[in-house]
Design brief:
single chain; alpha/beta; Aspartate Aminotransferase, domain 2; Aspartate Aminotransferase, domain 1; 7-stranded mixed sheet; 3-stranded antiparallel sheet; globular; binds ligand T4K
């Protein structure tokens, strides 16, 4: 039994005394939100860190997704994955768009581009794939289909902060990408998120849309939402940026310890790391196969009874929730790979303050 609960993740918090000067500055300025100085600094700092040119901060990743779809005037039907957090498909419903679920590529956590074309109808206007656990999608194939059919591509890159391929940040793909800075993410601002945009013109439109659509004191260009990140969140982001590389290094070490420890464990399949030039180790998914002594759910419960809170990300599939399951694309027969993955996956605890001792404890239980 673990003395202190071990969660699937724990926020990486910088020393409190380092945060106080930021708070003092906010108290001094009395600018709390609406694109204040820390907000502006963080947008600049994140562009530099991520190697992207334009980025608009948001209060959370979901509002960023909702606004990204609005900004590109996406409507009708959008092709997306059922294997994600509900926010992915919810952002479509919030825009009055019909989600069309397409299955995963065998052996992957991401949309199968080979199955996208068959799901396109005259109503399809965009594709909304997810770089699940920070594993990049087959971006070239997806873009090829989008170009052929004249579709927009918006990446839900909520898990992909800091992930790079040979050409740089994976956030540069598609028409827009969104990231999440939620407390459970590699880089957190308590709650937070951002849209990565290709040019200044698009960023300007997005900046209006996240502030009710207000362009100036007398002009409102669209029914925008209130999606603004506040100054406390932005200050947290600036401070977190100083520590995030160290945090990712520790995550890498934990990933290695798990891989070494679980390598010979019969019935547990450990997916290979992506072939990216930089991964962020945001999650540690394992697949509990039939020849493991316990079922996936029994293992989840056994860990829980010992104070270890793994998570079944992503079970159930989004397509199984009541607001989606009547859609024809939500039928289980349409999604065999995603259904299989969802029935086997277990995400083990991974976060910088997880100690070697705690990891050993988890390894012993899994190997018993
Ligand atoms: N797209 C994708 C693909 C996403 O995964 C997400 C979010 C979004 C879009 C939307 O982005 P945001 O709007 O959230 O920025 C969590 C997160 O709430 C959610 O952000 C995340 N995905 C999802 C995968 O995981 P839950 O319901 O599992 O979170 P919760 O509260 O159960 O937290 C998990 C564990 O983390 C807890 O057992 C303890 C620990 N924890 C959590 C919080 C909030 C802490 O130690 N401290 C904390 O403050 O959804």
């Amino acid at each position: 039994m673990s003395d202190t609960p071990i969660y699937v993740t724990q926020p990486d918090l910088p020393p409190l005394e380092e945060f106080i000067p930021y708070l003092e500055k906010i108290w001094e300025n009395k600018i709390l939100t609406n694109g204040g100085p820390f907000h502006q600094q963080l947008e600049k700092a994140l562009c530099e860190y991520l190697g992207v040119e334009h980025l608009a901060l948001f209060a959370n990743g979901t509002l960023a997704l909702v606004t990204a779809l609005q900004a590109l005037r996406v409507n009708g039907e959008v092709i997306t994955t059922p294997y994600s957090f509900v926010a992915t498909a919810h952002s479509l419903l919030w825009n009055g768009i019909k989600p069309v679920f397409v299955d995963l590529k065998p052996g992957s956590f991401n949309l199968d581009p080979g199955k996208i074309e068959a799901a396109i109808t005259p109503q399809t206007t965009a594709i909304l794939p997810v770089h699940c656990y920070g594993y990049p999608c087959d971006v070239e194939h997806i873009q090829e289909i989008a170009d052929t059919y004249g579709l927009k591509v918006i990446y839900d890159a909520a898990h992909a902060f800091g992930v790079q391929d040979q050409g740089g940040s994976v956030l540069r793909y598609g028409d827009l990408s969104i990231v999440s800075f939620h407390a459970t993410k590699v880089f957190n601002t308590f709650e937070g998120g951002a849209i990565i945009c290709p040019d200044a013109k698009t960023k300007k439109r997005i900046d209006y849309l996240k502030n009710f659509g207000i362009a100036d004191e007398t002009t409102v260009i669209a029914p925008g939402i209130n999606g603004k990140m506040n100054e406390v969140q932005a200050a947290m982001g600036l401070l977190q940026l100083e520590h995030v590389d160290e945090a990712i290094m520790r995550r890498l070490e934990i990933d290695r310890l798990y891989r070494q420890g679980l390598g010979g464990c019969k019935g547990l399949f450990i997916p290979e790391l992506p072939t990216t030039s930089r991964h962020n180790f945001s999650y540690f998914p394992v697949l509990v196969e039939r020849d493991y002594p316990l079922s996936r759910d029994a293992l989840y419960e056994a860990l829980k009874s010992l104070g270890i809170y793994s998570r079944r990300y992503f079970y159930p599939l989004i397509s199984e929730f009541s607001m989606y399951r009547e859609l024809s694309s939500a039928h289980k027969g349409n999604l065999p790979i995603a259904s299989d993955m969802s029935s086997k996956v277990l995400c083990l605890p991974i976060y910088p303050s997880l100690s070697d001792e705690q990891i050993n404890q988890i390894l012993v239980i899994l190997g018993e």
